[in-house]
Amino acid sequence: MGVEYALVHIKYTIPPAICLTLLYRPLLTKLDAYKIGFLIIIAVVSTIPWDSYLIRNRIWSYPSHVIIGPKMFDIPLEEVFFFVVQTYNTSLLYLILSKSTFQPIYLRVERPCSHRLGPANPQWRYYKLFGQLALLALIILSWGMVKGNGIGTYTGLILIWAVPFLLILWSLAYQFILGLPISNTAIPIILPTLYLWIVDTLALQRGTWVINTGTKFGIHLWDGLEIEEALFFLVTNTLIVFGQLAFDNALSVLYTFPGLFRDPPALPSPLLLVQALLIPAARYEQARIVGLREAVARLKKKSRSFYLASSTFQVQIRTDLLLLYSFCRVADDLVDNACSSSEANQRIEKLQQFLNTAYGDQKSGPPNLNSILNDFPPDTHSALLQLPIRKLSRQSLEDLLRGFQTDLLFSKKNTNPPIENSCDLELYACRVAGTVAQMCIELIFHSYPSSMAPEGQCRILEAGNRMGIALQYVNISRDIGVDAKMGRVYLPTTWLAQENLTFNSILRNPRGKKVEKLRSRLLDRAFTLYQSSRDAIEELPIEATGPIRVAVQSYMEIGHVLRQEGYAVKAGRATVPKGRRLMVAWMALAGRE
Ligand SMILES: CC(C)=CCC/C(C)=C/CC/C(C)=C/CC/C(C)=C/[C@@H]1[C@@H](COP(=O)(O)OP(=O)(O)O)[C@]1(C)CC/C=C(\C)CC/C=C(\C)CCC=C(C)C
């Protein structure tokens, strides 16, 4: 009996497990736990028969003085723990590295060129086939090595066990394996493999486990690292990462195509996941993928705070929020970028017609939105078409358009600017931002059905509305100068009068001590509203609380920056430095401010 192998864990595998857990803990969700647990079970169940065979046939062995004693099917318990901890560590590293990637946009429709819906990535079928043939060849080669019963036996046994699993995973998830950024694929394989190679070098040099002669090539990758050991760790980490990728591929299919899976559960069963993976890529909906790609690009370009926040949501709700953002952004830009206020008015009318058609008469089947799209520029079509209409209340979207209408009432000639007093300001903010908050909450409750009584849900919606107003006040405080250039002053005229300012004087000069005083007054209101509504976030479904905290705290941080002297400005707007934004997001996830 000895503790040598146990010490390998204490020194080398448990410390990274603890560090990775602490790092990922604020982001860990039930779905992540489900994924990791699922893979650990598969890893242990599939490795035990193979490892037991190897030990019984003396391919490798453990001197009795290095293990504590208890065994499972001849495998020391330390070794069984190794399968668990390796799967856990590599999975966590994968989750950390892939968190910011919105994976559904890497799905590809595969159709033959002659298909009536047009060509779409036909070459991917050949990539799949090529990989399958290569893996089949490897299986045949490894079978020959095992049969030969010579120095290639150990290599053959590793490959004959692992490659069939790789073949299955490749066949199901080749799109993600090939298409995702290497931060999601190669890096989570390479980093733990290199680490385990070093650990293995140290362990073998100390004789913790021994590969017997006659069944190995005797080649060392470096001094102390047998080629077979190096291969083993490479292959097992590849299996773990491919397993995670297959899982995520299934989730992406499930949550991206409502036409294939309408309202899938937040924790899908293994059967449902397999069904999603078996859907032929020819049935994926190209318009949906394009809509999501454009939504991600829009969010990335236009809002750093919400882009960062969006990456903390799970794929299901993240998809809906991205599409909502895309619609709101496009609608806001259509109005803001119109050449004249009459064109802007026409655009709002068209958006209203779009909503009328989209909500239409629910009984007469799905509405045909294509005819109305001709009224809009082509680069806005996907944002309009993909809006998750059936999950959102018509009232909120119509109020948002009413808010945009207020913007059109600003003009130098207009002697009655639309925001006269605090009530006007609040109503405006409620329409353009309170509605957005309410829609976000509607989407959350749709993704994570709650047993909360309707009164409770109403209370949360009201708090969300206040939070939206708070964010809009921060937005207005930040943009006083930018808005003045567009002929808009959202500070109430009664407030201006108290400082001997006028609408036109702000248009001429949106700076100075008096303006700072008013900015500060608006920020005070924003923070009061924030304080009065932030507790309601904790009552949201658990999957949404951390990410929503990130969204609102990141945006409120702009307010904190505005209160400091000499803050950084980008394109005329106060901006939160990246490091500070990340710190705020991290603290928000951890539930601190
Ligand atoms: C991660 C996440 C939550 C993403 C989605 C957010 C989303 C759908 C935002 C819509 C943004 C938008 C373009 C709306 C049009 C109207 C508008 C301009 C509103 C202002 C946003 C400003 O963003 P930005 O600075 O990029 O805009 P400009 O460059 O100035 O044009 C707003 C300030 C409103 C944003 C409000 C929210 C996102 C609501 C936040 C509150 C919640 C999510 C609910 C909190 C829940 C409780 C229970 C309190």
UniProtKB/TrEMBL annotation:
Keywords: Carotenoid biosynthesis, Isomerase, Membrane, Multifunctional enzyme, Transferase, Transmembrane, Transmembrane helix
Similarity section: In the C-terminal section; belongs to the phytoene/squalene synthase family.
Enzyme Commission number(s) from the entry: 2.5.1.32, 5.5.1.19
InterPro entries: Isoprenoid_synthase_dom_sf, Lycopene_cyclase_dom, Squ/phyt_synthse, Squalene/phytoene_synthase_CS, Trans_IPPS_bact-type, Trans_IPPS_HH
Gene3D superfamilies xref list: Farnesyl Diphosphate Synthase (1.10.600.10)
Protein name stated in the entry: Bifunctional lycopene cyclase/phytoene synthase
Recorded GO MF terms: geranylgeranyl diphosphate synthase activity; intramolecular lyase activity; lycopene beta cyclase activity; squalene synthase [NAD(P)H] activity
Pathway the protein takes part in: Carotenoid biosynthesis; phytoene biosynthesis; all-trans-phytoene from geranylgeranyl diphosphate: step 1/1; Carotenoid biosynthesis; beta-carotene biosynthesis
PANTHER family: BIFUNCTIONAL LYCOPENE CYCLASE/PHYTOENE SYNTHASE
Transmembrane domains' residue ranges: 6-24, 36-55, 80-97, 126-145, 151-170, 177-198
Any GO CC annotation of this UniProt entry: membrane
CDD domains noted in UniProt: Trans_IPPS_HH (cd00683)
NCBIfam families: CarR_dom_SF
Species assigned in the record: Melanomma pulvis-pyrius CBS 109.77
UniProt-annotated location(s): Membrane
Reactions performed catalytically: all-trans-lycopene = gamma-carotene; gamma-carotene = all-trans-beta-carotene; 2 (2E,6E,10E)-geranylgeranyl diphosphate = 15-cis-phytoene + 2 diphosphate
Domain of life: Eukaryota
Gene Ontology terms describing biological process: carotenoid biosynthetic process
Membrane topology (UniProt): Multi-pass membrane protein
